[in-house]
């Protein structure tokens, strides 16, 4: 029994961190849904069909949607960055997630947020960038309906598929 326990105990902190990241993204997604429901179904007051609309910085976006959240939820437990101590000290160096302000809340396949280790090519191909840390060549993705796809299931090919299966004509990502 001791031998069996010793095999699993070293993996518990890693599993707990992954679980916490997923739960944090779920809480962030629920908060975004609440925010959108109180703002005509949109995360931004701007119309996503007009790309000339000003898009806020990620810090401004998080501050707008965040009063119901603890600011510490914006940092993944596996991220080496220190969380902000309050909303005033929030900046892109203490945010672990990207956000899609164009997420369509009437489309459950619309991507809302995910881990910051995302890259987008000039051709519009979405991939995970292991050099940016967090979950290596995988990542967590939160959808507009509030569900989260876990890092172990979302490699770069699946990430790109998720972005292209949703009904969004635009995905203006706010990256930390």
What is the CA–CA distance across the termini? Answer: 45 Å
Strand order of the largest sheet: 1-2-5-6
Strand content: 5-15%
Structural class: alpha+beta
Features:
176 residues; alpha+beta; 4-stranded antiparallel sheet; two-stranded antiparallel ribbon; 4 helices; globular; disordered N terminus
Characterization of the model:
With about 180 residues, this protein is an alpha+beta fold. The chain has one domain (about 15-165). Helix content is about 30%, strand content about 10%. The chain is built from 4 helices and 6 strands; from the N terminus they run αααββββββα. It has helices at about 1-10, 10-35, 60-65, 155-165; strands spanning about 95-100, 110-115, 120, 125-130, 140-145, 150. Strands 1-2-5-6 form a 4-stranded antiparallel sheet, sandwiched between helices. A two-stranded antiparallel sheet has the order 3-4. Strand 3 (about 120) and strand 4 form a beta hairpin. The chain is globular. The model is unreliable at about 1-15 (pLDDT under 50).
Secondary structure blueprint with pairings:
Blueprint: H1 2-8, H2 12-37, H3 58-65, E1 97-99, E2 111-115, E3 118-120, E4 126-128, E5 141-143, E6 148-149, H4 156-165
Antiparallel strand pairs: 1-2, 2-5, 3-4, 5-6
């Amino acid at each position: 029994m001791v031998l069996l326990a010793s095999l699993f105990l070293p993996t518990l902190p890693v599993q707990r961190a992954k679980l916490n990241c997923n739960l944090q993204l779920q809480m962030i997604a629920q908060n975004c849904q609440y925010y959108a429901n109180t703002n005509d179904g949109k995360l931004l007051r701007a119309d996503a069909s007009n790309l000339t609309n000003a898009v806020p910085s990620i810090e401004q976006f998080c501050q707008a949607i965040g009063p119901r959240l603890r600011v510490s939820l914006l940092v993944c437990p596996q991220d080496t960055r220190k969380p902000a101590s309050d909303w005033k000290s929030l900046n892109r160096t203490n945010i672990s997630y990207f956000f899609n302000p164009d997420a369509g809340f009437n489309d459950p396949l619309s991507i809302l947020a995910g881990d910051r280790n995302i890259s987008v090519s000039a051709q519009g191909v979405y991939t995970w960038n292991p050099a940016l840390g967090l979950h290596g060549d995988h990542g967590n993705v939160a959808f507009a309906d509030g569900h989260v796809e876990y890092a172990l299931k979302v490699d770069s090919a699946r990430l790109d598929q998720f972005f292209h299966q949703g009904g969004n004509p635009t995905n203006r990502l706010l990256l930390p």
